[in-house]
Design brief:
The chain is an alpha+beta fold. The chain has two domains: about 5-105 and about 335-410, no CATH class; about 125-315, archaeoglobus fulgidus dsm 4304 fold. It is built from 15 helices and ten strands. It has helices spanning about 5-15, 20-25, 30-40, 50-65, 70-75, 90-100, 105-120, 190, 215-220, 260-265, 300-305, 310-325, 335-365, 375-385, 400-405, and strands at about 125, 130-140, 160-170, 175-185, 205, 225-230, 240-245, 250-255, 270-280, 285-290. Strands 1, 2, 3, 4, 5, 6, 7, 8, 9 and 10 form a ten-stranded mixed β-sheet that branches. A hairpin with a 5-residue loop joins strand 3 and strand 4. Helix 3 crosses helix 7, helix 4 (about 50-65) crosses helix 13 and helix 13 crosses helix 14 (about 375-385). Residues about 1-20 and about 390-400 have low confidence and may be disordered.
Amino acid sequence: MSEFLKELHITSEFCQEHDIDAFTKHIPLEWVEEAVQQTGRASVRKRRFPAEQAVWLVLGIGLLRNRSIPEVCDKLELAFPDANGDLPPLATSSIIKGKEKLGSEPMKYLFKLTASQWDKSQDFDDVCGLKLLSVDGTQFKTQDTPSNQHFGYAQSTANFPSVLAVTLMSTRTHLISDAAFGPVTNSEIHYAQQLVSSAPENSLTLFDRGFFSAELFTAWQGASENTHWLTPIKSKMRYEIIDSYSEYDHIIDMPVSPQAKKQAPYLGDTWRARLILIPSPKGEIKGFITSCLCQEKYPIEDLLNVYWQRWEIERSYGELKQFQLSNKPILRSLKSDGIYQELWGILTSYNIVRLEIAAMAKEHDVEPLRISFINALYLIQDEFLWCSGRSPGTIPKKLKDLRENGKRLILPKKRKRKPYPRAVLAKTQKYPNRYKRKNATRS
């Protein structure tokens, strides 16, 4: 017997003996019912496709991007039997109608509820006693419909409307703690301010250079007890040195712009931070500012090690778009409320994959980021489809055997490579350009 047939035989036996469901394992039915009831989407009437089942459909759509919505519904057997006890397939119009009736609020409520609960069970990277988090933004294209034009266009030449999303993510597990998104016409800072209340106490959050804002960082620092931030400096940043720990470590005051004062009158004339400079071999000076002012409590060496992790969140966005969304850059929904619903489902499904990866990593005593995301995603998708039963939600309950096979998913440790500055590839032109030669003469 070939190795493939052996694996297939073992898998079939496993699926018959176990009821596997990654969703109902991490999302109890009580949470789904609470999300539906708290947002007013519960139905007294008994339907073949009630709101609770529509929630599982949206989660399945977020995980199975390469399958149609009716196919996901049929594969997971989400519809209840009819009055005669039969299970005829639901019409596509009935599925879409049930999905639209659900709306986006239950999915948002479910994401917030699950994220807050899952955060409590996860470990974080630790630096100087602070949990390490990261904030960054990304864009999702939508269908070009009159309803979706509400989101706006990223550029004047763009063909599709876009949604701008900003997330708060753990640098250790890449689990999303909170998210805010909406029209791309708003700035990343606008959505980051909606995440301030989610900043946990005793934490250090890494921000990209585009989030530089006195109002945002002041609010973030006061969100909870011992809540800190760190961000790269801009080349034209104005500041005054108040105190110096060393040649490359200073306490500075920065002026608050008139525009910031107008938007937030409570801000003073200046705001304070710690400036750490990083000289490069070519003589360029780069660095970052942070709210970790105390040199003894937050040594410069520890902060420098943290600074190099600031791109981790971009890697997670790449995995989500390239693998979970199957490189399909445009979301499915034709209506704006459906876009919000779809994104909340995608982010919740992404978190479930990350939870299973964290469980595999704990089983084999490795860091979560050493588990291959794409292989773990494919395994969970296979279990999702092969082992769907008649349990509520019809999706797995335990993945113990899947985790035992996680040895094959462990990646080698990252090698320390020579750092290179980031470069943006030139966009290819649609038509070739013709250039005149400098010394060209008429014949």
